[in-house]
Design a protein that fits this description.
homodimer, 218 residues, alpha/beta, Arc Repressor Mutant, subunit A, Rossmann fold, six-stranded parallel β-sheet, 10 helices, 8 strands
């Protein structure tokens, strides 16, 4: 594992969210000190990260509009990204209703579930009515969708991933607690909810106090 | 930010999940090479991490039962951890129904929502019927619960966090997309769902391919 580059992407995502927030409040420029302070990292780390983007800092800081544009390109959100959802239980329904994805250019084009009572319904920002999970291979053959979001039971993760991979999906965003195997050319991002809770309980332990301070916002 | 120790806790959580998995399949010992391979890190990193635990590796690898016990202590899950949930929308209901938390000793003792139609109901593993959010200060004054789970709208995050902090909560696990301010002695763990999706879309960009390989599972 080369942790540094994973950490880099993580920081890039956070710079972008911060820049967007500042932009909404009408800010025009931001300094590396301000960004560093917000993210609890060093100003030199900020300058190194952002210099890779080719966005220079003058004595007055970074121009927010230019930084925002470069970060959007880097993050691949300078365009609409279509997604499909597999599993429309409560978690799936919550994801369909979340406005944040929509605001960042992500669209739920279609959703699939094995439960017949859900088929034909829509929720939140979903663009087409929910289809039977058995339609998935046919749908993938006809439509080029880059991202599949998985909100299914642990047992179903690998079988569905195999169908998605056969259907040439490019990326899988997995909310289930077990992590599937994918070929090297498929991007897999696991949302590690349980590990997040374990991190929290680790920090709660008195013995681990030395790790606690300043470690909350990373 | 000292990223290394955040990464350390992350690795500890992953060792534990792997050990538990191996244990369920009846394994008795595991080598640092096997753990390293699974986690895509170096065997020497595994040995360094686990030596801090005081669990030695013989020529036959680590004893899974001993490793499991030490990791549970370190992660604070060698006991029952009570939680309260604020916000019982779809995401909140999904969290209440998730068996993983229960299996790791986390219990949803009580849940709170502003929606009167939810009050008195129960979902999943919730131990007491849902209460009005206005009951929260009184509940906190009477009950010592270490962890609050937040699944509320972004606007409500900071006001609820302020109530929780006044009520001496020790840790906040936040699923909302904005991150509240907490005093230094309160543990805050944000589940960064949107940032996880941005990481995925970053990896989808062809230009970023060099970051992609071997970076999926970190």
């Amino acid at each position: 594992m080369d942790y540094s580059s994973d950490a880099y992407v993580h920081r890039i995502a956070r710079y972008y969210r911060r820049i967007r927030h500042l932009n909404q409040f009408g800010a025009v420029r931001v300094s590396s000190d301000e960004l560093a302070d917000y993210m609890n990292i060093s100003p030199s780390q900020v300058r190194t990260d952002l210099s890779k983007l080719g966005v220079g800092q003058s004595g007055y800081g970074y121009k927010i509009s230019a930084l925002s544009e470069e970060l959007e390109k880097l993050l691949g959100i300078d365009k609409i990204n279509e997604m499909i959802l597999i599993g429309v239980g409560k978690l799936g329904q919550a994801l369909l209703a979340y406005p944040g994805f929509y605001r960042y250019g992500f669209r739920f084009r279609a959703a699939f579930d094995i439960n017949p009572s859900l088929q034909g319904k829509t929720f939140g920002y979903l663009q087409e009515p929910i289809q039977s999970a058995s339609e998935l291979p046919r749908f993938l053959a006809k439509n080029k969708i880059p991202i599949a979001v998985l909100a299914v039971d642990p047992e179903s993760v690998q079988p569905i991933v195999d169908i998605l991979v056969d259907g040439n999906i490019e990326a899988i965003w997995n909310f289930a607690s077990n992590y599937p195997d994918v070929p090297e050319d498929v991007v897999l991002e696991n949302v590690r909810i349980l590990e997040s809770l374990l991190k929290l309980s680790y920090q709660l332990e008195d013995d681990n106090e030395s790790f606690q301070k300043g470690e909350k916002e990373t």
